[in-house]
Every structure is written in structure tokens, then in C-alpha cells.
Amino acid sequence: MQLTQAELTRQKNPSRLSSVWRHIKQDRQLLILFLPCIVFFILFRYGPIYGLIIAFKDYNVYQGILDSPWVGLEHFRRFFDSPDFWILFRNTLQLGLFTLLWAFPFPILFAVMLNEVRFIRFKKWVQTFSYLPSFLSVVIVSSMIIDFLSPTHGLINELLKAFGFTPTYFLAAPEWFRTIYISTDIWQHMGYDAIIYLAAIAAIDPSLYEAAKVDGASRFHMMRYITIPSIMPTIVIMFILKSGAMFRIGYEKVLLLYSPMTYEVADVFSTYVYRKGLLETNYSYASAVGLFESMIALVMLLLTNFVSKRAGGKGLW
After folding, report:
1. Cβ atoms < 10 Å from Cβ of 127
2. Looking at residue 170, which CATH number applies to its domain?
3. What is the similarity comment for this entry (predicted)?
């Protein structure tokens, strides 16, 4: 029996569903390993999106989310009219922007310099010690900062007294808060973030370095004209991700380090949401502020990706 053209086409091009099912069967072990990650994101990332409804309601715990009355954009208007809005916006922008400008280049420089080390044992020791701070919790890091900067027995003030300077209560001085926050953030995350750049450097074709060495290029020139341009796509993608998270400053470290004396420079959106939502139980208002913060972060991500694609043709999508 002769097959029609349509039947021949279906035999040559199986349906999309059967193709997907075939790939699932082939990669079932990897998908099983990935399953906990999927469950995590469904439960703790996408599931709570339902709760954002209360940003548009006058939420009452006893009435529940669905039965609480709608108030529309009332909470957003109240927040924008509040004198706290511009203070929070300025502090969040400055802290996020300065952290991005100062903390972003350090892992790149560290990875490039570590790649130039030829003593393998020393290189492994440096890598190990640089990764260790990222495994410490925010509470431990903040406790270390408080102890080191203590005006009575802190290491920093003891050194200042030894050199004849007057001890300073750094954590109570608004002009020192951003410096402390950014410098400790660099120390904590530099080694861990450098892993990505070291992996990108390891993927560079060794023949490029061999050809450059034959042409008489120094190690500095190889680093400048081979290493850095080769990892530039990775740098661009990481910069886009970091820019998108610029407004998403975690409340934990700020909450543990700031005090009423440093509110004017340290209070950010996340700490404000914590106070309004958990301490004052004003859940709807806190959800509105948190939603606004998330929307700003989304706009920053889209804007950075757009500028990157227009400038260099590379982006997340």
C-alpha cells in the first residue's frame, strides 16, 4: 500500500510530544537530580506569588486573603506620599550602586591574578582561604564585624590606640556604614564569585597562549589581550545579573549592623519591609513596598540586558 505524502512527512518528523518524551527517557537520571530544585522553586518562589494579592487589599488575618476587602493602589499611594520613600530610595540606590561598582570588579581581578600563579600548592591554599568566608552565615560575619570594630576591645580600635589615634565607634557613625558594608561584602563573596571566572578562564584554548608566547608577548599582554577578552561574555552576563539584584539588598546584614544612629544612611527597602510587616504586622503595606522593590529590580534587569545587547550584542536572552 502506497503511503501518502502527509503520512511520509509524519514518519520523518515525529510529533513534538513524542520527541519530548524520548528526551525525558534519555535524560531521566539528570531530571530526577534536578527535581528537588524544581520543587524548591515551585514552593518557595512561585507559590508565594499568590500572596502578593494582599498588597491590593486591606488584609486581615481573621478574614483571610480572599475575604479581605480590596483597596486598590491605596498602599502604594501612601508609601509614595510618605517622607520615608525618598530616604529609602536614596539609601537603597546608593548602597546597591556602590556595592556593584566596588564589589563587582574584585572577583574578576582575583580570578585573573590567581590564574597567573604558577605554584600550584600556594594557588590551592589561596583558593581555599578565599572561599571560606562565603560559607559563613550572615550572623557570624556580622558578629565578627561588631567584635572587630568594638570601641572598647575591638582589634581595629586597639591598633588605632597603639598608633596614637582616638578610638572610634564605627558602627554608630553614619559616614562609615557604607564603607563597612561594602568592604566586608567584598571580603565575604570575592572568592566564591571568582569560581565562575576561573571556570571561564579554564575553558580558554591553550593554543592562544602558546601562539602569543611564540610572538614574544609578556604575561601581562596575554592577560590583557587573551584572558580578559575571552571571559568578557561571562563578565557581561554576571554584570547583568548583579545589576538586576542591585535593589534587592538583603535585610539580614543591614539589620544586624545598623542602629537608630545610622538609619539615615542604612535604612533600605528590605529593612523597612521587615519592620512594617513583621514588627508592626502591617502586612498589606509591607507587601506593597516589597512589590515595588521587586518591580524596580525587574526594570533594572531588563534595562541592563537591553543596553548590553545594543552595545555589545550579548545578553541573557
Report:
1. 18
2. 1.10.3720.10
3. Belongs to the binding-protein-dependent transport system permease family.
Backbone angles phi, psi at 60, to 5 degrees: -125, 130
Looking at residue 4, what DSSP letter applies?
Answer: P
> Considering its fold, how many domains does the chain have in total?
1
C-alpha cell read off for 130: 578565599
Sign of the dihedral through C-alpha 222, 226, 229, 235? negative
- pLDDT digit string, tens, across residues 99-125: 999 999 999 999 999 988 888 888 889
> What is the residue range of 157's domain?
82-312
> Which 3 state secondary structure label does DSSP give 291?
helix
What does the block give as the cell for 205? 584554548
Quick check: pTM over 0.70? Answer: yes
Convert the pLDDT of each residue in 48-76 to its tens digit. 888 889 999 999 888 888 888 999 899 99
Burial category of 229 from C-beta neighbours within 10 Å (exposed 0-12, middle 13-18, buried 19 and up): exposed
Query: Distance between CA atoms of 217 and 308, rounded to whole angstroms?
Result: 31
